[in-house]
Amino acid sequence: MASPQVYRLEIAHLFNGLSEQEKHYSHHMARCSRFVGRQDHLTTGFPESLPIFDFILALYQSCDGDWSSIVDEGVVTNQDMASFLEYAATFLSNVGNYYGSGDQKFVPRLRMDALEALATRSPRSKVLYAQFKDSIVAIPPFSLGFPGERAQSSYYPGPVAVTKNDAECISRYMDAQHIYPENTRLRKAEDGALEILQASVLLGESELQLGDSLSSPVVKLLKGDHAADLEKVCENLQKANEYAANDTQRRFLAEYIESFRTGNLESYRDSQRTWISDQGPKVENIFGFVEPYRDPYGVRAEFEALVALADPFETKLLTRLVEHSDKFICRLPWAIAENSGKGVFEKTLFEPPDFSSIHSLAYCSSIIVPGINLPNYNDIRQDVGFKNVIIANRMAAESTAATWPFIDSDELPTFRNHKHSAYYWWVVLHELLGHGTGKMMIEQSTGQYNFDPGNPPTNP
């Protein structure tokens, strides 16, 4: 495990410029991320993750954040405490004990007797330690993946290992029943029945009747996965609703709540259509089961929460770029004279997206990305639109890294001077022209295409 670098994300100058209504709105939205953090630990890969998370918080509370007092009491040495804080920082940054990028497991560089000594701080820390004392250092598993000797995943919990074939089988059932996979997990019962665990506040169980009952496995839909944490998320979204800036925000908050309560992702898709129309908000947000990076099958998503404040000056610069986006699209390598100079691989009308430079106030995810293009639903992006955001304070902080091991010492001053601006504009163009352009060629209905199937465009 490499030593982590800890960065300070500056936000006070923007938060202090908000009205009292906007401050209350951002506060309640940010509080949701506290419960989303627990949700992430439950959904993204590893059974020992949640007790480790609670253990770190329990130790923090036991010393009121004064870690040196634990050393002063003689519980552990300075080196022990430094090693523990190194592990805790890496764990919290990755929302678990597997790296968000790469999914490899990391273990603490801490003597186990020192960790056990820390566990004596309170009755609660003792109980939590007992739940992970063996698994925190166990290798294998080495990484996230379908459960087995070398990998594990909480997307597929239970004593009976779920295989890739099981995931493929259940996907066909879910498609037939119009059940989206993003907010689900899959469990295999002792009798071979496949159980779809759907995240929702509401509880319920139903059996899906599909195909030949003699040859098809029993498939059950169990609602209520993560119900307690989602209930708290909904409570804070409801409080935020009281301070929303406009009807559009109140509408997508209501659609968030409806989706999280019922597990219905059609309501969540509706929230994304509404969210897109909330142009240039002072307080931006992203909530929901968004990215499927950590699912070995690539469809089940972790629950993310981002609350951020817009920087008006930086956003104005990005808006000017967006206003001239058609000119840049016509310079892409596949652009030809057709379609007003954009070529056949682009939509006839490019709808300029809302492109904001935002500063993170609260961000809970296994990967803190520098820029985002959302929603992830291609049909909504193509038919309704999308938003681009650049998380500016995250990028600025990263540019202050203590070391750059792959840069020659003679080139380091030049690299430091230009790294942030080069990185910033690379991400800007990645979001605007990478995610934002391109036409998804599909069969919209039987025999109806959005291109000429008899004369399809030539791959450039």
TrEMBL record:
Keyword Endoplasmic reticulum: no
Coiled-coil residue windows: none
Name recorded for this polypeptide: Dipeptidyl-peptidase 3
Keywords per UniProt: Hydrolase, Metal-binding
Record PANTHER family: DIPEPTIDYL PEPTIDASE 3, DIPEPTIDYL PEPTIDASE III-RELATED
Source species: Apiospora hydei
InterPro entries: Peptidase_M49
Origin superkingdom: Eukaryota
Record Gene3D superfamilies: 3.30.540.30, 3.30.70.2600
Transmembrane as UniProt keyword: no
